[in-house]
Amino acid sequence: MSTRRTDPLAQVSDFEIRLLRIFRSVVECGGFSAAESVLGIGRSAISLHMSDLEQRLGLRLCQRGRAGFALTEEGREVYQSTLQLLGAIESFRSEVNGLHRNLRGELNIGLTDNLVTVPHMRITNALAQLKQQGPDVQINIRMTPPGEVEQGVLGGSLHVGVVPQVGALSGLEYQSLYSERSLLYCAVGHPLFYAADDSLDDARLDAQDAISPTFRLPAEVQAHYQRLNCTASASDREGVAFLLLTGRYIGYLADHYAEAWVTQGRLRALKPTQRFYEVNMAAVTRKGRRPNLVLEAFLEALGSSR
């Protein structure tokens, strides 16, 4: 009495799946010869693959010879199972790809105030791409000082932030986005607003009441404030703007943020070729973060946006 191997396939490997694809083509073409052009391999190679598959399955799948090609009873059942298996693989691929195309979930992003006027609009463009890619994604923006943005990313309440790159905090990754220039301004009503450029010597500027920020800045930028007579402070750039527009102080503002008031004749840059500084803006994320398709899609869009 002959015995048949039990469970000849402990698992289905990539190679077996390849053999099953060849088997499906042979069946659908009606034989080895007809399958040659579809598979792009010769009849002898097809025959070897079929013999290999039969050996691995422990089953006779088809009759071949002068009488022509015909499936055995086991071959018909394996063919139906092959269709189910390959269909399930294709469904799996489609569903996974669909997750990338149709993102779901939230993006919690923390921003330093007044980045919306940046001409590059990289953040705005990246958010637009994310929303196009994932219409169901919920975007939550929190406007806070840079230190709070970094702490939010570290603590996990924010997925990503955009802050001035002062120094890399342990546990965070920084992706440089663009450089931002800040100029020294005063507003209409200030004694220096109509002063001639040649009268604006450093001593006169440094004697004016000035505004200092309370958020972190690079050491080379802090030197610009140390020479000023800072008698007021602000936790963010909107606060600086409020104080500037009183006409009682001088202070530094990002040029893109101040531009609207300059155009209206309400702000004036003081010695703009000399009294300025630049800070790199960076996207910040947590090191070792869990995989998050929404966040990765946003970062990819941010990296490609110019």
Give a written overview of the molecule.
Helix 1 (about 15-30) crosses helix 2 (about 30-40). The chain has about 300 residues and is α/β, with parallel strands linked by helices. Helix content is about 45%, strand content about 20%. It folds into three domains: about 15-100, Winged helix-like DNA-binding domain superfamily/Winged helix DNA-binding domain (Arc Repressor Mutant, subunit A, Orthogonal Bundle), CATH 1.10.10; about 105-160 and about 285-305, no CATH class; about 180-280, D-Maltodextrin-Binding Protein, domain 2, CATH 3.40.190. The strands form three sheets. Strands 3, 4, 5, 6, 9, 10 and 11 form a seven-stranded mixed β-sheet that branches. Strands 1-2 form a two-stranded antiparallel ribbon.
Which terms would index this structure?
Arc Repressor Mutant, subunit A, alpha/beta, two-stranded antiparallel sheet, D-Maltodextrin-Binding Protein, domain 2, 3 domains, 11 helices
Low-confidence stretches: none
Mean pLDDT: 87
Number of helices: 11
Question: How would you characterize the largest beta sheet?
Answer: 7 strands, mixed
The backbone outline, from C-alpha atoms, is rod-shaped
Question: What would you say the CATH architecture of the largest domain is?
Answer: 3-Layer(aba) Sandwich
H/E element string?
HHHEEHEHEHEEHEHEHEHEEH
Protein name: DNA-binding transcriptional LysR family regulator
Keywords: DNA-binding, Transcription, Transcription regulation
Pfam families: HTH_1, LysR_substrate
Family: Belongs to the LysR transcriptional regulatory family.
